């Protein structure tokens, strides 16, 4: 059996995946190997995922962003699902989770894996419920069968809800919002009905063996994550975290890569505490957080409430951020929601990388600021996180080509443009001129590829074309060298 990334790393081998990751992150391949060997970073790379462009998740690397896609009973067709994958990759998702619960799950999952340059994650429990018909009818054999099938299909990482135990359930009784994780609620219902321990916990070593065979990475699900600020950091959440720490070490003992999922809804003053506790309890295994939302009051804007928490979590050491869209709590996201969610999370990830002083992370900010001060509108649009949006917002009021040379925009107007006034004052008076010619060279920046514009430039030639995107340029193919 071939070695997993962590087994190879422990044996001192730098794999081609580590080489590629080192190139993308601008790091020494040996450093990548050390981080993987120590379980401090993961390279989710199922050996059957041929279209993958390997990436790494770890607190010492650029912060990554995951987007969830997937069908439901009400929306389901292959073309739409591939379009969602394309949208997510286009707007900069570093990994994509296929959380489909509708029909044709196998066909859609296989198409996602065939077409995706980014790691694909799944939650096998959802398919188990679908096949069994109800949570209580799930069997251990069915769970193992589905996990093995998905591993053979090429899924790079799977959320496994093995950390929620029967003894944890009473700890949720006083909560304001109970158990809000889908997987958690399913396992809780199963345990209540059967009066037995969580089957995923009981067969965890067998799951490890399947994962080791195909090199699937664990994403240990936080079934008892808080669904409201009132429930954050309670006994139930932290009791499960202790079990996730135990399972992390079991996974490592089996030569399997592990990351750990985290909350949810957490007030700002407790975000760092959550990250530090997970890092301590799980011996530094990468923390993959959903948001967290820092207030419960803003349905319709939860990409913002959660991106605030996500930025704080990433600054405190979270390695990957699971995006939240404006539709959170309200409905299945549409394409514009995916775009808005990813923009919010790419901002959170980048802001944390700048705040953590990752080498070169701020170069992108500097380059854009220079273009802005120089009134180089086209360059400013090109460097923007979402160039199409920046261009279209500008052109709503000043659409003419001549305004691409203008020393003002419609925000302050020509007379009150502070940057124009500042430049004139420097020309006419004592203040020194600000020279723009020695601008930031992003090509020479040591920043990781995900921290340089444009985002969303993964290998995309295999993806279906985007439909009806005005002004949308085809994505660039990275060179093979
Ligand atoms: S008009 Fe105001 S917002 Fe527009 S470029 Fe000048 S200073 Fe900036």
TrEMBL record:
GO terms for molecular function: 4 iron, 4 sulfur cluster binding; phosphomethylpyrimidine synthase activity; zinc ion binding. Pathway: Cofactor biosynthesis; thiamine diphosphate biosynthesis. It is an enzyme of class 4 (lyase). The keyword Iron applies. Keywords: 4Fe-4S, Iron, Iron-sulfur, Lyase, Metal-binding, S-adenosyl-L-methionine, Thiamine biosynthesis, Zinc. Residues 429-441, 470-481 have a biased composition (Acidic residues). Residues 1-29, 427-481 are annotated as: Disordered. Signal peptide: none annotated. GO terms for biological process: thiamine biosynthetic process; thiamine diphosphate biosynthetic process. Gene3D superfamilies: 6.10.250.620, Radical SAM ThiC family, central domain. Pfam families: ThiC_Rad_SAM (PF01964). This is Phosphomethylpyrimidine synthase. The gene is thiC.
């Amino acid at each position: 059996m071939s070695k997993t990334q962590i087994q190879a790393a422990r044996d001192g081998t730098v794999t081609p995946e580590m080489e590629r990751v080192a190139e993308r992150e601008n790091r020494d391949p040996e450093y990548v190997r050390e981080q993987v060997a120590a379980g401090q970073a993961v390279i989710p790379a199922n050996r059957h995922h041929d279209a993958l462009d390997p990436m790494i998740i770890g607190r010492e690397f650029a912060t990554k962003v995951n987007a969830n896609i997937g069908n439901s009973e009400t929306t389901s067709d292959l073309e739409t699902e591939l379009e969602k994958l394309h949208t997510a990759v286009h707007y900069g998702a570093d990994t994509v989770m296929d959380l489909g619960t509708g029909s044709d799950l196998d066909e859609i999952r296989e198409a996602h894996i065939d077409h995706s340059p980014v790691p694909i994650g799944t939650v096998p429990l959802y398919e188990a419920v679908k096949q069994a018909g109800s949570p209580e009818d799930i069997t251990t054999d069915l769970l193992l069968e589905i996990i093995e099938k998905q591993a053979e299909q090429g899924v790079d990482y799977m959320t496994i809800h093995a950390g929620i135990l029967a003894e944890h359930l009473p700890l949720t009784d006083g909560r304001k919002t109970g158990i809000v994780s889908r997987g958690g609620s399913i396992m809780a219902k199963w345990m209540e009905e059967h009066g037995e321990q969580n089957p995923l916990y009981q067969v965890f070593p067998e799951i490890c063996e399947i994962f080791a065979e195909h090199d699937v990475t664990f994403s240990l699900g936080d079934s008892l994550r808080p669904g409201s600020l009132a429930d954050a950091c309670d006994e139930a959440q932290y009791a499960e975290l202790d079990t996730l720490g135990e399972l992390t070490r079991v996974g490592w003992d089996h030569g399997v890569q592990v990351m750990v999922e985290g909350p949810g809804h957490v007030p700002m003053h407790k975000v760092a505490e959550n990250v530090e506790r997970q890092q301590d309890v799980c011996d530094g295994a990468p923390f993959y957080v959903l948001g967290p939302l820092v207030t419960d009051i803003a349905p319709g804007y939860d990409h913002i409430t959660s991106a605030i928490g996500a930025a704080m979590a990433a600054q405190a050491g979270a390695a990957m951020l699971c995006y939240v869209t404006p539709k959170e709590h309200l409905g299945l996201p549409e394409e514009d929601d995916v775009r808005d969610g990813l923009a919010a999370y790419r901002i959170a990830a980048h802001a944390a990388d700048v705040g953590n002083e990752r080498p070169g992370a701020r170069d992108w900010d500097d380059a854009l600021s220079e273009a802005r001060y120089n009134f180089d509108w086209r360059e400013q649009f090109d460097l923007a996180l979402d160039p199409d949006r920046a261009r279209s917002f500008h052109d709503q009021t000043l659409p003419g080509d001549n305004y691409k040379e203008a020393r003002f925009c419609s925000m302050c107007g020509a007379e009150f443009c502070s940057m124009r006034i500042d430049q004139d004052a420097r020309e006419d008076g004592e203040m020194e001129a600000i020279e723009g010619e020695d601008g930031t060279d992003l090509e020479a920046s040591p920043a990781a590829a995900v921290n340089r514009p444009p985002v969303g430039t993964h290998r995309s030639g295999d993806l279906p074309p985007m439909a009806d995107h005005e002004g949308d340029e085809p994505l660039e193919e990275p060179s093979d060298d």
